[in-house]
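Late entry, written up from scratch paper. The run itself happened at the end of the previous shift, but nothing got recorded in the book at the time, so transcribing now.
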Amino acid sequence: MKAGRQARIAIIEDNVGLQEELIFFLESKGFSVWAVPSAEAFWKRLHAAPVDIVLVDIGLPGEDGFSVLEYLRGLGAYGLVVMSARGAQADRARGLALGADAYLVKPVNFADLAVVLARLWQRLTQDSDHGAAGNSDALAWALRDACLVAPQGQNLRLTEQETRLLETLMRYPNEVCDKAYLHEHLFGFHEEPDTHRIDVVLSRLRNKARKAQFPLPIRVVFGKGIVFLVD
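Output as recorded:
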């Protein structure tokens, strides 16, 4: 990803009217955009037209959006934003667990979408060399079966919120994640996020680790956010 340019965005949305509105809005913000009505059409076009961020509907004809999220997260560092009429907590949790950076419920406020995309693009364009150096070390840590597994083999049982917090932090090892971004990943987008909720989740996690004598490599950087440290 090259600093100084706007993101290239793909939209997977079978509502043609919404497709057109999104293209018009995002192009007016300077993004390069293309759209398709299905996952199958997306895979065919992606090879010839690379993108940085993908907006994904869940209820697609044929292959659904959850499958797209899972496969894209395995392919590389795409920004992934769900836009769906399915607003149930179970759907939101599944989308985020599969790798979505944000989950927006239709009808989507375009101003909110612009904020989400700006924050996400900022994260994606952070120092890639620093991130690449940390990622190989982060592989020694793992999230498996609702547990955080340390390089030495110790396991720490996690709640759903703790798992989602660690998923995000471990995606950016040795990088400070601001609490507003973490709040969005755990609780959805809010114009004025209550970041104290992140403090509560983190406090419980650290207390649990302390009691279990588990070497939790998380640090809070005052005024900036939280970081998952790896050697």
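Confidence is low (pLDDT under 50) at residues 127-138.
(Scratch paper discarded after transcription.)
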